[in-house]
């Protein structure tokens, strides 16, 4: 859900190739500093040595410098090749080969080495696997809990193609937050997520509460892909109807010329209005802003929600 088009101070873009340069001028509020601090470099080297992927890099997240300097990263398991081609996403699409059964061990050791107290794990879609990769998700959760019992683990899962056993596998491993992004509104969902399904995503979040009513659920919306403002509010209402408690809302940034065009840039004031609408609907926490992404400052969002009961 992130874009290579983000512009940094200094005039360069995160993606250096000519074909990936954005054609549309970004508003001032969309500019961020080029990453490169000492913690960023240390974490980058550590992840390379451990042969781990992060969504921060693969999806070209604009907050990578900020998060990595805070020693916070969202780990992407099950490889870096996705079996789906969402029309807004920068992650590589193709045919994955196998799974790495040792990945959970390496991930747990890295989390322990970093001394993390909050860890976010996500993945590409793996429709080539019978369980969509749920077993590896469960292994990662359990290994991290073994190595770091005090570390909170949030999982940002795919829809597992609607498989209830796969969902149960992930939930039974005991994540502290179950996140699944709806991404867009019902009307344009088929255009931007042709292999996904709006109702399937809502059903997944509803089933989480049926399996474990105490587990916090979370979702995310990207705006600027052709939806109307009122449709964003309607999507928030749909999420609340299935018990979703935590929400992120951020601006879409076009990865390349072949991806969905940006329909418009929402202003900071509009993001603030969306946050207020979300809170009035009963979300326990809403992070809404131009550069907000589904795992940005996830620890702070979880903590705020926990304080509210």
Task: Explain what the structure shows.
The protein is an alpha/beta fold and 309 residues long. It has one domain (18-303): Aldolase class I (TIM Barrel, Alpha-Beta Barrel), CATH 3.20.20. Helices cover 36% and strands 12% of the residues. It has helices at residues 38-49, 55-58, 64-69, 103-114, 134-147, 164-172, 189-192, 198-211, 229-241, 268-281, 298-307, and strands at 53-54, 74-77, 118-123, 152-156, 177-179, 217-223, 246-251, 285-288. It has an 8-stranded mixed sheet with strand order 1-2-3-4-5-6-7-8, sandwiched between helices. Helix 4 links the parallel strand 2 and strand 3 (118-123). Helix 6 crosses helix 8 (198-211) and helix 9 runs parallel beside helix 10 (268-281). The model is unreliable at 1-22 (pLDDT under 50).
Summary of the model, kept short:
This protein is an alpha/beta fold.
Name the descriptors.
single chain, alpha/beta, TIM Barrel, eight-stranded mixed beta sheet, 12% strand, globular, disordered N terminus
Total domain modules:
1
**Secondary structure category:** alpha/beta
Reported by name, the CATH topology is TIM Barrel
Mean pLDDT: 84
Main β-sheet, in a few words? 8 strands, mixed
Low-pLDDT sequence parts: 1-22
Helix fraction by DSSP (H/I, runs of at least 4):
25-40%
CATH class: Alpha Beta
The first-to-last residue Cα distance is 30 Å
Helix-strand pattern: HEHHEHEHEHEHHEHEHEH
Number of strands: 8
- Considering the protein shown, what is the CATH homologous superfamily? Aldolase class I
Q: What fraction strand?
A: 5-15%
Q: Can you count the helices?
A: 11
Shape: globular
Compute the CA-based radius of gyration. Answer: 18 Å
Strand line-up across the major sheet: 1-2-3-4-5-6-7-8
Just name the CATH architecture: Alpha-Beta Barrel
